[in-house]
Amino acid sequence: MAANVTDEAAVAAAVEATVLAFGGIDLVVNNAGLSLSKPLLETTAEDWDLQHDVMAKGSFLVSKAAARALIEQGLGGDVVYISSKNSVFAGPNNIAYSATKADQAHQVRLLAVELGEHGVKVNGINPDGVVRGSGIFAAGWGANRAKTYGIDEQDLGAFYAQRTILKREVLPENVANAVAAITGPDFSHTTGLHVPVDAGVAAAFLR
Ligand SMILES: NC(=O)c1ccc[n+]([C@@H]2O[C@H](COP(=O)([O-])OP(=O)(O)OC[C@H]3O[C@@H](n4cnc5c(N)ncnc54)[C@H](O)[C@@H]3O)[C@@H](O)[C@H]2O)c1
Description:
It is a single chain. The chain contains six helices and four strands. By secondary structure, the protein is α/β, with parallel strands linked by helices. It folds into two domains: 8-128 and 172-197, Rossmann fold (3-Layer(aba) Sandwich), CATH 3.40.50.720; 129-169, no CATH class. A four-stranded parallel β-sheet has the order 1-2-3-4, sandwiched between helices. Strand 1, helix 2 and strand 2 (77-82) form a beta-alpha-beta unit. Helix 1 (8-22) packs parallel to helix 2 and helix 2 runs parallel beside helix 3. It binds nicotinamide-adenine-dinucleotide (NAD). Nicotinamide-adenine-dinucleotide (NAD) is lined by residues 4-6, 31-35, 54, 58, 82, 84, 127-130, 134-137.
């Protein structure tokens, strides 16, 4: 089911179709996103609105529609936000993207408190530097970053790895594995948490 997450009616229809197709809903992952890297003075009001519409508002609408179904089912469930290292890390040329990631991060805490009484856990993942398979990186962000660092775009993943504590490249499956773990039985008593999946970035340590 495809849906534009900025469209409340489309999101509600997608959740309804999902429930009808699968007999219910267990797990919601707020992953939709895009990234514009611009300094403050070049960031337009339209840039700001687009970033916030898709990520802050989009995940709010998806969580709302899904929570309605989860509460009605009465079986608990999970909501996971793919937030970002940038929700806590402050770097240049990132005002619209990082601000909306911080918004998503606080939605995790707010909804963890609100949905807990229904047995619904709400957690977040903070990835960083996932180049492989990323439409965001393929659509210009990667070329921009590579140029900034004076390297080939194809070497960006390895370059990011060298900036981490573990010196490991972060791959899409590392993010998916974290989602599987945080929604699995081993974390049955954890809600309101953010899990970094960034191979270790001290500046983004959570306090
Ligand atoms: N790649 C990274 O290094 C990185 C790091 C931290 C966080 N993230 C976050 O991970 C998520 C996935 O990013 P990715 O790197 O895989 O990029 P991606 O472009 O591969 O995936 C983003 C997806 O969101 C979808 N999308 C965009 N606007 C939408 C809308 N209005 N309605 C529905 N879907 C929409 C796109 O079609 C795309 O499939 C994003 O929220 C991103 O901010 C990525």
